[in-house]
Amino acid sequence: NCPPDVEQLGRATWTFLHTTAAYYPEKPTPTQRANMLMLLRALPLLYPCKWCADDFGQDLVKHAPDVSGRVALSRWLCERHNEVNSKLGKEKFDCAKVDERWRDGPPDGSCD
């Protein structure tokens, strides 16, 4: 019943962002693109971990979000997540497996 610590908050946020990207349209409308950009740009302003927020905000400036479609957004987000993992000394994720992890589940059907 404790509030989430920074690691729990980070995992929950990445889960939300990756899952949102996994179900983002292949061909988003201009409104959907604008809404996704607003969501991503709001994180550095609202995220409760100041260091995390500042770091993500700097990353947004260096690497503009690609909201052109589901695949591009998922790859962009995976690359950002891998940059964070690298800074934290964590293993990088294989971005070729984003759909398996966040949308379809493993080929063995164990998540069905």
Overall shape: it is globular
- N-to-C SSE string, H for helix and E for strand: HHHHH
- Could you report the average pLDDT, rounded to the nearest whole number? 97
- Ranges where pLDDT stays below 50 over 5 or more residues in a row are none
Number of strands: 0
CATH superfamily: ERV/ALR sulfhydryl oxidase domain
The DSSP helix count reads 5
The percentage of residues in β strands lies in under 5%
Q: Give the second-level CATH assignment, the architecture.
A: Up-down Bundle
- Multimerization state: single chain
Helical residue percent band: 55-70%
Task: Give the total of domains.
Answer: 1
Return the CATH topology: Four Helix Bundle (Hemerythrin (Met), subunit A)
As a whole number of angstroms, the C-alpha radius of gyration is: 14 Å
Largest sheet report: none
| CATH C-level category | Mainly Alpha
Instruction: Classify the secondary structure makeup into a structural class.
Output: mainly alpha
Q: N- to C-terminal separation?
A: 30 Å
